[in-house]
Amino acid sequence: MAPATPEAPQESRGPQEPGEESRVWSVDEHLADILRQVSPLEPLELQLLDAQGCVLTEDVTAAVALPPFDNSSMDGYAVRAEDVEGASAESPRTLTVIGDIAAGSGGLPTVGPGTAARIMTGAPLPPGADAVVPVEWTDGGTGGGPATAMRAHSTAPEGATGEVRVHRPAPAGSHVRRRGCDVADGDTVLRSGTLLGPAQLGLAAAIGRGSVRVRPRPRVVVMSTGSELVPPGTELPPGRIHDSNSFALTAAARDAGALAYRVTAVADDAASLRAAVEEQLIRADLVVTSGGVSVGAYDVVKEAFSGPGRGAFSGEGPEGGAPSGEEPVAAGDPGGGRGDGRGDGAATGVEETDPGAEPSHTRPGGAGTAGRSAAGGSGSPASAAPPPPPADRVDFRRLAMQPGKPQGFGRVGPDGTPLLALPGNPVSAFVSFELFVRPAIRALMGLPPQGRGTVRAVCPEGVTSSPAGKRQYLRGRFADGRVTPLGGPGSHLMKALADADALIVVPEEATSVPPGGEVDVILLR
Q1: Domains in the chain and their CATH numbers?
Q2: If exposure means fewest CB atoms within 10 Å of the residue's CB, which of 14, 78, 347, 483 is most exposed?
Q3: What mean pLDDT value characterizes the chain?
C-alpha cells in the first residue's frame, strides 16, 4: 500500500499514559498526528533572490507587458516589407541604411520607402518598419555575397550608413516580437502556492517585481546522539563510529527545501541533550534528532523527553540570549550572523551547512518562534487550527513498519517547536525522514506534504519475506517500470542505501511478493 493521505488518529492531550507506549501505531496514523500539529509558517516579504526555494502566498500580476514594446528577434535590418518583396540572390533589393538601433536605444529613426535601419536583437522596432531581415539574408553592407555576421560598430562604424543589398523577402511581421506576445498588462503570471525557482524568479524580475510575499524556508536543526560518535575526518578510537546520520539528515532537509543546521553529536546524557536542544530553539522551526529512541539503557532522547515536567525550556541560550560559541559565517552574510536574520549569535558545536542561507529578515513573532499561521493572521486566534499540545512533551511510539519501528514526536520550548525523534540506525533514520520529516518540512512551507512520487512497478525478483503486520520499506533501483531490491533488510546497510533510487513498499498484509509481482515504489530521485 502506498503512503497516501494519512488517516487522522484520535486526538490525545496531556501526559502520555504509562501503557500508551504499548500501542502500535500505523505509519499513516503517526504521519497524520504530525501533520495535524504542524502548520505553515507566517509569510514574509522577501527580495527576489532571498525568496528562492520559498512558496508564494500571493498571486503576482504583471504591471507591464512582456515584451514591453515591439522588438527584433534577430540581428539584421528593420525594413518595410513592401520594399523587399520579390528579393532574391539574382535580383537583390538595395536599401539606404539610415542608422543603427541597439538594444536599449531611445530615439529611433523612421524607416521610409527605400530605407532600412541596422537593428540588433532585442532592440525596439523603429517607426515605419514592419519586418526585420536577418543579416544573413543580406550582404551586410559590404557589397559582396551573403554576410555571416555584422561587423562590430567600434571597428566599422560605417556599417550604420551606406547601402545594403537584401537577397530574400521578409513578409510583414517577420522576426518581430510583438508587445505583450508573452505576457499582457494585468496578466496573473505566478499563482499563490508556487514554489519559486530560477525561472519563476526570472519572470518576476522581468515584470518589474523587486520582492514577493512568501512563506520562508523552514529552519531545521539536526543533531545525532550517541557517545560512540566521532566527526568524519578524525581517527576512530576503538568502539567508536563516525557520525553519518547528522550529515545525511541535514542534506536531506536541504533537499526538501529547508534551511538546515547541523549540530555536533551529543553524548548519551539527558541533561546535555536538553541543553543542546534548548540552545537551538532560538533558530529552529523544527528539530530533528537521531538515535536514543528505543528501549536500551542509554537511549538518551527518550530519557530526556519522556513524560511531562522534564524541566521547562526557556527558548534562550546562555545569558538569556543567543546560543553560545562560534559559527562560520554563511555565504552572503557579511554581518557575521547566521545569514537568516531569525536569531543572532551562534551555537556550540554548530555548523551552518546551507551556503544559500536567507539574508537578514525577521519572522513574525520574533526569533525562535515557530511562526505557525493562524486564521486571520498572526494576531488572530487560531480558530482554524487545533490547539497545540502541552509544550515539552514528546511521545515515543512503536510503529508497524520496518525499518524505523521506534519513533518520537512532540513539541518543546515556549513556542511549541515540533521535534521529531528518529531511530539511530542509518537506514531507519533515512526512511523515517522520507516518511515523516520531509512531509513536515513541506507542511511548514505551505506545500502538499507528499512530495515524492509513488508509482506501481514490477519486481522481477520478488521479495522472499516481509514481517506480518508491518509495512516494509526496502531499498531498490527503479527503471522502465521495474524495480530491483538492493541489499538485505538490515537497517545498517548504508552502501545499498547510497546505491538506491527508490523505496519498495511491501504492505502490512503481505508477507512476501512473488517474482514478477507488482509493488508500490517511492521514487527518491
Answers
A1: 20-38+216-437 (3.40.980.10), 71-177 (2.170.190.11), 454-523 (2.40.340.10)
A2: 14
A3: 84
